[in-house]
Amino acid sequence: MVMKTRAYLGLGSNLDTPIEQLRAARTAICAVMGIEEMAFSSLYRSPSMGSKNQPDYVNAVMAIQTDLPPLVLLAALQTIENEHGRVRLERWGARTLDIDILLFGDEVLNFPDLVVPHYGMTERAFVLYPLAEIAPDLAIPNHGKLAELVARCPLNDLVRLSDVV
Ligand code: ROI
Questions:
Q1: I want to staple 8 with a disulfide (CB 3.0 to 4.6 A). Which of 16, 98, 102, 105 is the partner?
Q2: Spatial contact of 105 and 73, defined as CB atoms under 8 Å apart
Q3: Whose CA is nearest to atom 6 of ligand 1?
Q4: CA-to-CA distance for 6 and 135, rounded, in angstroms?
Q5: Ligand 1 near 18 CB (within 6 A)
Q6: Could you give the CA distance from residue 154 to residue 160 in angstroms, rounded to a whole number?
Q7: How far is the CA of 50 from the centre of ligand 1 (A)?
């Protein structure tokens, strides 16, 4: 029997028509053998966190079911980032497409290239709000209930794009 894991991915872009980048990323992720989409959040816009003088980001969260092991999943996602012309001139710089593994089942992973739960996700509005939209009852390993993290996290100018008139 093949074990399937529910994982959550964070997608972000702030260059080259970000909405198109996220649409293309979603399509590419769904085309990977061993990945099945379970949910996709609304798109959210927010000012660049950490580094100013960058365009606003568009972010979303995707729930998948996968039988790929975590490092194989990571490699598949990095291939998609690269194929979609990822531009990353500096560590915190603007990028065309960023795909992060936020959660992998209830596992805590500490590989050199993959730390799960994803670093910083428990304090980032652009991760927590879209995640809560598609998985309101989730618990984050070592961090407790998602709903409580959301309640403690200011919006910081995050807007859901479908709410913009
Ligand atoms: N800021 C926002 N709003 N969204 C992101 O996805 C994002 N990603 C990053 C940094 C530069 C930290 N800031 C971000 O890598």
A1: 102
A2: no
A3: 12
A4: 11
A5: no
A6: 14
A7: 7
Q: Whole-angstrom Cα distance, residue 52 to residue 47? A: 8
pLDDT digits 0-9 by tens, 26-81: 999 999 999 999 999 999 999 999 877 889 999 999 999 999 999 999 999 999 99
Q: Determine which residue's CA is closest to atom 15 belonging to ligand 1.
A: 92
The tens digit of pLDDT for each residue in 136-148 reads: 999 999 999 999 9
Beta strands in the chain (DSSP E): 5-13, 35-40, 44-46, 57-66, 98-104, 109-111, 114-116, 139-140, 144-145, 159-160
pTM value? 0.94
CB 97 within 8 A of CB 18: no
Cβ(59) – ligand 1 distance below 6 Å:
yes
List domains and CATH numbers for the chain. Answer: 5-162 (3.30.70.560)
Compute φ and ψ for 82, nearest 5 degrees: -70, -40
Query: Which residues on neighbouring strands pair with residue 12, listed in sequence order?
Result: 59, 98
Where do we find the tokens 């809560």?
Answer: 132
Q: Rounded to whole angstroms, how far apart are CA atoms 40 and 64?
A: 9
